[in-house]
């Protein structure tokens, strides 16, 4: 979904995915809810431009040999854990801090243009919440011998 902020899109994105795992898919197949719930963030070109948000659930292990259409496998990530709820302001702060830490450490194989915010807890859990920011490690080109 696209919009100026993620917060207002979380519920409609979650409902769509929940319906899918509840059997509203091409195979009418029900799947267990999994964690974490990840949202891929493609920031807009400027502060007032719409960003693109793609929420995803991880495919349960018993369905991984033949995942439903549209399922992608993840590359390695650089990540940072943080607690509390994850409103847009907290996500932006954590993503900025992780990017700064990676840059200060001299990491050059990081895609800083997109990132994930990942949540492990249901919304009704008020304390000891676990969230993460993930930056994707850039793919290294294959060597000629591969």
From TrEMBL:
This is Heme-binding protein 2. It comes from Hyalella azteca. Gene3D superfamilies: Regulatory factor, effector binding domain. It comes from the Eukaryota. Belongs to the HEBP family. Pfam families: SOUL.
């Amino acid at each position: 979904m696209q919009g100026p902020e993620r917060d207002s899109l979380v519920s409609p994105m979650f409902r769509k995915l929940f319906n899918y795992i509840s059997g509203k898919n091409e195979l009418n197949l029900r799947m267990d809810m999994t964690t974490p719930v990840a949202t891929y963030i493609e920031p807009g070109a400027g502060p007032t431009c719409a960003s693109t948000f793609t929420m995803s659930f991880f495919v349960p292990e018993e369905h991984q040999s033949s995942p439903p259409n549209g399922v992608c496998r993840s590359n390695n990530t650089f990540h940072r854990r943080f607690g509390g709820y994850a409103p847009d302001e907290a996500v932006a702060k954590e993503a900025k801090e992780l990017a700064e830490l990676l840059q200060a450490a001299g990491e050059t194989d990081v895609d800083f243009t997109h990132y994930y915010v990942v949540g492990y807890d249901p919304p009704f859990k008020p304390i000891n919440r676990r969230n993460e920011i993930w930056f994707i490690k850039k793919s290294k080109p294959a060597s000629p011998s591969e």
